[in-house]
Amino acid sequence: MASILEPSALFSQVATDTLYVTALVASVWGVAAAFKKKKTQPDVWKVHGKYYDLTKFLDKHPGGSAFLEIAKNTDITALFESHHVHDADRIRETILPKYEITEPEAMAKGWIPIEGAPEWDFSKGGFFKETQKGVAEALPKSILSKHDWWYDSFILFAAVLSWFAVYNVFFNPSYKAFWYTVTFFSRVTVVSGAGHYYLHSGESWREIFWDFYSPMSSWVWKYEHCISHHIHTSTQYDLQMSGPRQIRKFPGTPNPIRVFLLFGVSPFLTYLKNFGTFVETGAPLKYYLYKVPMFVEFIIAYRAGMVVPYAIFIALAAIYSILFLFCSHQLPEQQLAVSAKLLNEKHLTTAPYIKDNLKVHPRDWGLHQMMTSKDFYVTGNYTFDNFIMIIAHNQVAHHFFPIFNPLHYEVVEEVISKQLKKFNLPHEYIEKRSFVGCVPELVSSLCHHTLEDFHEIFTGAAA
Fold first, then answer.
1. Which pairs from 10-13 meet CB under 8 Å and 24+ separation?
2. Which residues cross the membrane (predicted)?
3. Are 121 and 361 contacting, i.e. CB atoms less than 8 angstroms apart?
4. Which distant-in-sequence residues (6+ apart) come within 8 Å of 79 by Cβ?
5. Residue 311 binned pLDDT confidence (cut-offs 50, 70, 90)
6. What would the pLDDT profile of 203-226 be if each residue is shown by its tens digit?
7. Rounded Cα–Cα distance for residues 358 and 342 (Å)
8. What is the model's pTM?
9. Which among 197, 434, 449, 455 is most buried, taking Cβ atoms within 10 Å?
10. pLDDT tens-digit profile of 52-92?
11. Residue 114 neighbours by CB under 8 Å, 6+ apart
């Protein structure tokens, strides 16, 4: 273990190491860019059944080019509707027609494997579109970035607190490793939540919050989380929820080993896979440089003789992420039960759900989000839960409209509740469950089930 340096010596050493790391990261990008595959077909974006060539619009897009670049050659209707709450119809009528093209003979292969994926319904007057209209009226567009300062201030405070823990400032030196781990883990909960929010809210320098927290790049997470997971949540086309299927491939494996594979091995294999995707998909240089702070954090831990606590911190963060992801989404057998209860039939492929002369299309995207996402609480205290889990209390609202700050999700939930009553849908979808109570059920489900069950739900046929 490295010897502990004085603050001034540590700062000098870390500054030097940072320059080396930055140069190395930039060099990796240069090599990856040199081997980037050349396009053989024009890029196409599909919205509401029509095709557009948005190549010339990439640099004009107010939310930045990353989302469009990553989602090219796919159907981006759900992404478009959920991220343009206030002006989706206006953009569809006035801007998109400028880039419309005839249907291509064959779309170039997108990064996200969604061949055969269901086309979600966004009919005017439907459950999702009515909810979107209500939220747009309740939350004006001007509030979207109103609370950025709150995240900035708290993350700075948490970072300083972590530094104090390293040098025993205000902390008992006998418990240095303990305080280091606790303060870093406290910071990571906030940074991950803030970074998660900024991944959805367009390109900005604040995306670095995610890269500061996670070994996975914000560029890749836009691809797997924002575009794959948020559109086809908990289906076989959801890349982020594919872990259980891999574990299922080990028939006869005792449950304790499956749990170890999920929480001990899977995160690090995922990190390696994400790095491959990061390079293969040609991420811009800035997304490579966003990873520098995390390398610097490791350097600080190493120079301060805190490698073991840092490793514990990374392991806890990985386990925390997996628990959060799977506890906040319906698992296969839960999904089957919910869909059967809602539609009183096995599959969602027949007639629309009709009750008291109100119709909800079985592929209404809002209905899909209601059935696959679930809210939970950690302590039952809203403020504390939003500190620890950021969006734990409001996972359903987040899946409907991820561009909103968690401070606004209560308003979104109120609108959703009104629409549930209007369409006579069960209000239980936004009833909160205990996070602690979910964990045993989660582990048991992941040991015995696979996401391939979803194929039957959405297509009516076995995978």
1. 10/300, 10/303, 10/304, 13/299, 13/303
2. 149-171, 177-199, 259-279, 299-326
3. yes
4. 67, 71, 226, 227, 230, 231
5. confident
6. 888 888 788 767 778 888 888 888
7. 14
8. 0.79
9. 197
10. 999 999 989 988 888 888 888 888 899 999 999 999 999 99
11. 74, 75, 228, 232, 237
Reduced to 3 states, what is the DSSP secondary structure of residue 337?
Answer: helix
**Alpha-carbon 72 to chain mean position:** 19
Distance of alpha carbon 180 from alpha carbon 171, whole angstroms? 10
Identify which has the larger pLDDT, 196 or 390: 196
Per-residue pLDDT at 99: 93
- Specify burial of residue 389 (Cβ count, 10 A radius: 0-12, 13-18, 19+): buried
pLDDT band at 347 (very low <50, low <70, confident <90, very high): very low
Residue that the structure tokens 């409907």 belong to: 400
Where does residue 442 fall: left (phi above 0), alpha (psi -120 to 50 degrees), or beta otherwise?
A: alpha
The backbone region for 125, taken as left when phi is positive above 0, alpha when psi lies in -120 to 50, beta otherwise, is: left
Q: Is the dihedral of CA 447, 450, 453, 454 positive or negative?
A: positive
Beta bridge partners of 100: 52
| CB-CB contact of 231 with 79 (8 Å) | yes
Could you write out the DSSP letters of every residue in 384-407? Answer: HHHHHTSSGGGHHHHHH-TTS-GG
- Tell me the two tokens of residue 408: 């606004």
Provide the sign of the torsion angle of the four alpha carbons 312, 313, 316, 321, taken in this order: negative
Q: CA angle, corner 422, sides to 419 and 423, nearest 5?
A: 90
Which tokens is 233 given?
């949540």
With 80 as the cut, is the pLDDT of residue 151 above it? no
Compute the 3-state secondary structure of the chain and give helix, strand, coil in percent, each to the nearest 5.
65, 5, 30
